[in-house]
Structures are given as structure tokens and as C-alpha cells.
Amino acid sequence: MTVLRPVFYLALLAFIIAAPFLLPDFRTQLATLWLFIILAMTWDMTGGQMGYNSLGNILFYGAGMYIAAVVGISIVYDVGEYTNAFGGGTYKFTPTQYFIGMGLGLLLAGVLSAAIAWIMGYLLFQFRGPYFAIGTLGAAIAAGELVSNWEWVGGGQGIALPVYPGDFDVGKLFFYYLFAVMGVILFIFLRWFYTTRFAAAINAIRDDEEKAEAMGIHTLRYKLTTWAIAAFFVGIAGGISGYQLIHFEPLETAFQTINLGIFMVVCVLLGGKGTLWGPIIGAILFHVVKEVTWNYLLGWQWVALGALIVVTVVYFQDGLMGWLASKKPEWFGERVITKPDVAGEPAE
Question: Terminal CA-to-CA distance of the chain, rounded, Å?
Fold first, then answer.
């Protein structure tokens, strides 16, 4: 297995690079798949590894969208005028302005989303279990309502960002690779992160927070840091989505608690909480099912997705990875010892 692992990762990397050329008609869907993978992996940091199930991580996605948009616009124009809060007009961006604005916007989207998570965490981490989940959901809904009434950023109309300054198909490739690079970086980071003492501490919080505190672990600090790291990546993902979509609205797109906010949780539950590969596998399976039902079961897609959620919760409570670990433990590096028979001979 040790020898095959580098080969597997190299083959996977080669497929990631080649995917938009192998499937040119599905470049947008492939980019969306990477978005699902990123959101699922970040949600699992708090929900799976730390045991705090958030229903409001979509708040950082929406915040990232608006932060990246405001920064990208403000380096060239007045945001209020651009969003027609104080009058209309024609606004153009040069390629240099577009990419500089996007780069600064994505960086600040991550940093400020992490800061929002840290500040909010002081209040929300006073709650546990379903109270924490409901609190995060309420915060996300409230954020969407506040932004939808904030005329300076466009209010309920949302914001229309400049179009990618180049060929349309090249733009699709650009956003695919932007998401893919971010997803690969996040995977590499988490692969290292889950081997650290910090990860052991948040796992201890998940298993028994009172005992973790008794052992001298500063639980609030660990919870705030973990949520802030997750929010950093979610905020950047939201910023990329804003530029990819070009136009977005606060309730239907940025702070979509009912759709994307629930989808990221379902992806993790489907693949398996508290694992490195579980959220990735769950996101792939969920995205495939979603696309197939959207195209071939028009009008029944929500029924199909609801059935998938019910089946996952009832029959695969530990997700696909947990189910596989119980059926094939040797695949996960566990030693399987066969029980001897009555005569003392190894069982067949």
C-alpha cells in the first residue's frame, strides 16, 4: 500500500488536470463538484472532527461572495454608485483591474470570514448539540436578511460583477482550475492537520468535552480556531463562486441556507463524518445524483434527494466510509484475526 499510494495520488492529480478536457461539456458541473468537495471538507472540520454540527456555514460562503465583490469593485469604482444605490451607469474593468481586484477580494474574503467566525464563535460556542446548530442556522438567515436590506451593496437585487475578460470557454477552465487548486491545497492541508496534536485535541472535544477540559485543553480556543480555519476556506470558495456566477443575490444565491447550506451537510453524512476521504466521496456521489435527478427527474428531484437523505440517515449512519470500514476493515489498515475453531485450528 505504501508503494501504491504515490502512484494513486499522481494518477488522481493527472485526472484532475485532464478532467475539463476529457469532459469539455461538463466544465461548469466539474467546477461545482469542486465547490461541493471544499464545502464538505470544511464542514467536517467542525461537524465531524470536533462534534459541533453547524447549519450556518453558508454564512461564510455568502460573506465571502460579498467581501470579494466589494473589494474588487472598490479598487476602481464607488460601490454604492456601481450597485445603483445612488444612480446607474456603465462601468468597465480592464483585465488588470479584474484580476487584481479578484485576487485581493479572495484574500480578504478568507481573512474576514475567519474573523467573523472567530467573533461569532464567542457567542455560539456557549451552546452545544442542537442548540448550536439552530444558533448557526439563525445567524445565517439573519445575515441574508440584513444584506438583502443593505442598499449600498445592491439590496435584494444583488451585485453584478464584471465578466471574465477573455474567451468564454477559457473562463470556464479558469474557474475550474481555481476551484481545483483550492480543493487540492485544502486536502493537503487537512491530510497534515489531522495528524497533529491540535486535531487530537478537537477529537477529544468531540468525544467528551468535559474530560477534555479536565485534561487542561482550552476547548474554546480550539473550537474558535477550527471554525475560523474552516470559514477561511469557505469564504474564499464563496468569493470564487461570486466571480463565476457574475450576478448573485443575497437570499437565493449567497446565503442559500435551504439549498447549499444543507447540501454540504448531506455530502458529509453520505460519505462519512470524521474522515479525510468521506466528505470527498460523499460530495462526488451527491453531486452525481443531484445532476442526474435535475436532468431526468424534473419535478421529482427534491423527492429523490430527500429519499437519498433518508436512506443515508437510516441505513448508513456512519456514511459510506464507516460502512466500508465495518465490512472491509483490512482496507483501512486494521488487522483482521480469524477465530480458531473448537479443535484449536484457525477457522477457514
Answer: 25
pLDDT digits (tens, 9 = 90+) for 18-42: 999 999 999 999 999 999 999 999 9
User: Residue 345 domain-assigned?
Assistant: no
3-state secondary structure of 159: strand
> Which of 133, 125, 129 has its CA nearest to residue 218?
125
6 part of a folded domain: no
- Spatial separation of the C-alpha atoms in residues 327 and 321, rounded to whole Å: 10
pTM: 0.91
Residue 247 domain-assigned (yes or no) = yes
Distance of CA 18 to the CA centre of its chain: 23
Query: Quick check: is 288 in a domain?
Result: no
Boundaries of domain holding 41: 26-271
| Mean pLDDT lowest among 78-82, 85-89, 269-273, 295-299 | 85-89
> Looking at the 3D structure of the chain, how many domains does it have?
1
Rounded-to-integer distance, Cα 169 and Cα 179, Å:
16
As to burial, measured by CB atoms within 10 angstroms (0-12 exposed, 13-18 middle, 19+ buried), residue 260 is buried
Element containing residue 113 per DSSP (H, E): helix 95-124
DSSP per residue over 127-148, as a string? --THHHHHHHHHHHHHHHHHHH
Q: What angle do CA 9, 13, 17 make, to 5 degrees?
A: 170
d(CA 106, CA 182): 11
